[in-house]
Write a structure and sequence with these properties.
The protein is mostly beta strands and 866 residues long. Helix content is 10%, strand content 35%. Helix 2 crosses helix 4 and helix 6 packs antiparallel against helix 7. InterPro entries: MetalloPept_cat_dom_sf, Secre_tail.
Amino acid sequence: MKKYVLLMLLGCASNLFAQKLKMEFKPGIIVEEYTPEKTGIHRELPAGYSERMLDEIQNRNARATQSQQYVKAGTQVIVTYETIPPDDVKIIFERAANLWASTLNSDVPINIYIRWRSLAAGVLGSAGASTNVRNFVGCDRLNTWYPVALAEKMAHKNLNGSNPDILATFNSDFTDWYTGTDGVPKINQIDLYSVVLHEFGHGLGFIGQMGLSSSDNTKAGYGYPGIFDQFMVNADQVALTDTSQIDNPSTALKTQLTSGALFLNSPSITRLNGAKAKLYAPNNYSEGSSTYHVDQATYKVGDPNALMTPQIARGELTRDIGPIVLGAFNDFGWSSSNIIADNYNDTEDVSKDIIFSAKVYSDTLINESSVKLMMAIDKSILSATSVPLVKSGNTYTYTLPKSNATRKINYYWTANDAGGKKFTTPAQAPVISGTNFGSYYDFTIGADTVKPVVLYENPIKYIFTSQTKINLPTLLTSDNIGIASVYMEYSINGAPFERQNFTKVAGETFSYSTAFNFTAGQLKAGDVVRYRVIVADAAKVSNVVYLPSSGYYDFKVLALADPVSAYVQNFDSTPSGDFFLKGFNLIQTTGFSSVALHSAHPYADGNEESYDGAGGSDKFTNNDALLLKPIKISAENPKITFDEIVLVEPGDTGEPFLNSDGSVNRSFYDYVIVQGSKDQGKTWSNFANGWDASLNAAWLSKYNSAGDADGNSTAIATSSLVKSHEIDLLASGDFKVNDEVVIRFRLHADVGAHGWGWAVDNLKIQGPKVDPILAIEPTALTKGLQISPNPSAGTLKVIYEQAADLDGLVLRVIDLQGRPVFNQSYPTQGNRFEQQIDLSYLSSGTYALQLQVQNQLVLRRFVMVK
């Protein structure tokens, strides 16, 4: 029998419904795909199953005519359609929504957005929570993700505006749907009601955050756990989120997720189900099926817990939510008690009383005498004592009398339900071992001396004279009493400073932006622009933050030369004015016989810009060598060739340079790359993917040959590691013939390990396909020329012999640019010439040895390796 697999894919969806969220959230849609049969446990219908189910449905209908179905008051599920589906389909969506509404209890409407549309063959649909929320007022667990519908129930407020809580999409082209509600699907049909009920279950909370590591599938891990994850245990009752027992991430965690002995355990599950719930944890981890379904073999077709198994059989009818899900949801928070109270901001106003207020909600009974506001004034939160409260309905208040003294107030709320279960706001107050985050509220009354928190990075290192508008990075700032002003002061070449304000980004809480707006021709080559950013808070005596903390940011104005058709450079004579260098130098370093373009050896870890753009500690540095002569791309030979050594940190084995969305894969770590700009430096594109030490086995071996305690490579390169590299300027598709392109060489370093770096020599951009001096057709005499050793480290032995006597000859050595680097005439006797020449002064690379014999040339290539 063919079965369908319910696959959950945790991914970054388009977020069309999550863009306006102000709460901290993890974007993503929990997706279920039903695909044709594949290996695994088969979902078979037991004998007589259809007949028994039909009898059960008829009995239910008979009972329904005798008594009204109970629906919990106050729970409203709103279903919105992209386009209205057929009536029989619409009835199924709304009945599934109604069943969940009668099961759950929330005073905030649950919004479901449904799309009934064409999908790919073999895909029946997808559904899930539109977003997850953590650390909201009313939650039970710190740093734990909750599906937004559950979070809203516990917060007793709408957390995502007009956005839906669950997004569902189902395949309108699938021909084998069973869309009845009073019968049983045929043996070849998939019951739409069962599928929709299952999908809504994931969106409401039957999902978590654990999975295989994206960079190492031998490990499993998670960022912050989901509420589901907090109740997962192994066979020994060890919680999977107990990092004192199971590291995160780790191979040990993967072992648990693939153990076949993974369980969901909570008091309500045990009470309603009689035992903890066994989860689906096959030995071969199945993305989207493992972990967040109940075990297929334990809860077979017809079992009351079969709804949330990872597979559904054709003909299967699973329309009961089941005791496992009901028990789990009860303890996840769908049956909970919550204290909803304000977290006050600092204030300088000492002339007013402060009124503390909290509303207490419960799905059970509250022990009213247990409701307390615990407060400590100018003391540790561990010294907090209760204060007298005034009760009015479910609202409790306390008035703190005004005082002229500056006071630090620490506080939290706590209560017990009638069964003795404690709940607090903020969650798990007053303290959690190892962290203070969210474990109590605090604010100060009195003169403010706290400076704003400001996150800002300056990535601007150079611009071009042709640029007039230069957008600065977004600045993020917050303050305990508010921000009064954000502006910058800037100067060109030491002129008087000018002020320019930042503007708050519309719809954002912490973001500010601005831009330099220069007039055409205002900037000249060599100009230096200095600036600093000033952020002042709203205190009576402003607290000010300067960025940088001392001095100024600066960037240089560069001019581009006229475009050229080719550029050839061996760096032996300094190419004055051809390059702008940041993190590079033109030097002759140890182990090399000539000048080349070198990064710092070793190069530094990333320390300038943050990947998240918000000033975090995950930083990077770009080291650039920028050619100021634009190249007009030719159809004849659109190639860059150069000799190089690349000893930069390799990425994880097998990781591609780019992600599927075109962004650089963070698991690639450090890399070197050649990029081009066809709009005079405003935007840049890659000619080819970046690379690292793993591009060449000799480089990788050298990089790994020596290291320090911090994991950095201490290996030092020599010219024997030189390899040639060729890049096609047209291969990426971002450039075309006749484009005038600025070219830069970039070494990108993250905060992790570093190595010796990058060296580039013998650069040729659109040079002749074959140098004219090397293009001479070799004659039959060439076979009489012998050179050894080849490759050579410095000394070359030349032997030439021909039938006739020699009458003198000229020996030349020519580099790939066609320039002679050795030229010597020799007298001869007889028909044989033998000479040893010293070429130790040459750098590594490819050369040609040329013998001129009478009016003929004899040619042979050789390689110098130092």
